[in-house]
Amino acid sequence: MSLTSILSAEAIENAVKDCQAPDSFCYKKFFKLCGLSSKMPQEVKDVFQILDEDNSGFIEESELKFFLQRFVPGARTLSEAETKTLISAADDDSDGRIGAEEFLTMVQS
């Protein structure tokens, strides 16, 4: 499964282009622009599985740094501040990582 089987390539490209400047990543705007926030829960969980590179059932800080590159190879890495903002937005149980349910809640908020 690939991200483009769930989201349109054009929408993904537009979302990544919108946050190319350093420290300009806003997860709410990104999820809206790429179309993820309007997807069904199972589709959001499918995207989570793709982003969970090591298949641990969680997206850790090390994976989040390369979040944009999972959507478009060659995109910039997220800054430490952007990564921490993304984790704190979703990490409801304060374990320092994002689980599938936490990701779904963040995307749909």
Automatic annotation (TrEMBL):
Q: Which residues bind Ca(2+) 2?
A: D91, D93, D95, E102
**UniProt keyword terms in alphabetical order:** Calcium, Metal-binding, Muscle protein, Repeat
Which InterPro entries does this entry report, sorted A to Z? EF-hand-dom_pair, EF_Hand_1_Ca_BS, EF_hand_dom, Parvalbumin
Quote the Pfam families the UniProt record gives. EF-hand_7
Q: Please name the SUPFAM superfamilies in this protein's record.
A: EF-hand
Can you tell me which family this protein belongs to?
Belongs to the parvalbumin family.
Matching entries from PANTHER family are given as: PARVALBUMIN, PARVALBUMIN ALPHA
**Know the name of this protein?**
Parvalbumin
Protein species of origin: Gymnodraco acuticeps
